[in-house]
Automatic annotation (TrEMBL):
Gene3D superfamilies: MFS general substrate transporter like domains. Residues 5-416 form the Major facilitator superfamily (MFS) profile domain. It is a multi-pass membrane protein. The keyword 4Fe-4S does not apply. It comes from Sphingomonas montanisoli. GO terms for cellular component: membrane. The chain crosses the membrane at residues 44-64, 71-91, 97-118, 130-156, 176-194, 224-244, 264-283, 295-317, 323-347, 359-379, 391-411. The keyword Hydrolase does not apply. It holds the Pfam family MFS_1. This is MFS transporter. It is found in: Membrane. Keywords: Membrane, Transmembrane, Transmembrane helix, Transport. InterPro entries: MFS, MFS_dom, MFS_spinster-like, MFS_trans_sf. One of its GO terms (molecular function) is transmembrane transporter activity.
Amino acid sequence: MGWLTVAILFLLYILSLTDRNIMALMVGPIKADLGLSDLQISLLQGPAFAFLFCICALPVGMALDRYSRRVILWLSVTIWSIAAASCGLASSFAMLAISRAGVGVGESGFSTGSYSVVGDSFPPHKVGLAMSIFIMGGVMGAGVVFLVGGPIVSAVMQGGGSVWPILGALQPWQEVFIITGAPGILLALLVFLFREPIRRKKTSIDQGAGYGEAWTFLKAHKPLAVATFLGFGLTYACTIGFQLWTPSFLARVHGWTPAQIGPVLGVTQILAAALMPVHGWAVDRMFKAGRRDAHLLWCMGAVIIAAPLGVVAFLVSNPWVTVILYGLFMALVLAAASMGPTVVQVVTAPRLRGRVSALYVLVTGLIALAGGPATVGLITDKVLGDEKLVGMSLVITIFVVLLPSALLFALGRRSMRNAVEAL
């Protein structure tokens, strides 16, 4: 039942990232149709989505420690799917931002709820592998956006606008949002195919309805909290920035079309994601063997090795070399995508997992989802002043965003050992 749960959440996570990132393949048409700048596109891909994604994690976290997590997951998938489809009805920056915020509301509940469900479905020394496979669905979702979304976007764009019943005249990019968003309304029902996982210790409202106990736990392990919340947040910010702006780099600098970018980056992203269970398996073995800081140690090494690959990727003149180095970079930094949630589940008492997971989603989401895309767009627009220098913007983010996370992981290792031993 645990692995059936992971399989269903895996599929829904693919859908989640597809709805979240499909905009990356339509930057040009959206900019042209709505008259937007790179900074405004960054705001749509980042803060417009991230603000409510993060804020809504707090009430969701409290609900997860009290009520049925399956019902919360169903509501979450339904809400984000309706909002994703409604992006296709937007005719201005403000309307598109509101719809993107709705996607953030739904995906917030899904991410927070899924972490809690997976954490209670496996023993601590197996959570790393299970979480890696689940998170792999999300990362593969970004690959599916490119692999499947690229040809879809290209075909719809070539077909031009059309008139839909009830909805009226729609631009091609609006049609893409509706085509990719609407199916999730039915797919949300998949969550009722697995059982509600048993909480390992009885949880009641009397054990703390608010976040006081969660804050007390985090303050007792400050270096671990900083490493987990800020360190993983920075790593995600760099990862998301690379995912969302590499297509624009290939289009602006090398003249690639969505039909070319989609399959190439899609396969690259999926291959990189396929290695995520290797990270989880290796860390689980280290943890079982007694290395209680295995998760932070592994991610520290992955970031240090990945950084030079990411720098060189956007300095070379051959786009195929860029793609290869981008793939190697992603294969390494994606270790953090699953290890962050795993650390939260491994070091937190069962009665607190929903609320601590919510705080984790809140902080890392604000840093990564708002900061990652917006930082790249801001550097390109306001510092470098040339949209063709987006590759240099990505290089700069490695030095100012990614590498500091390795230091934070190192500083949190002892605190993590103490937290695990205290359980």
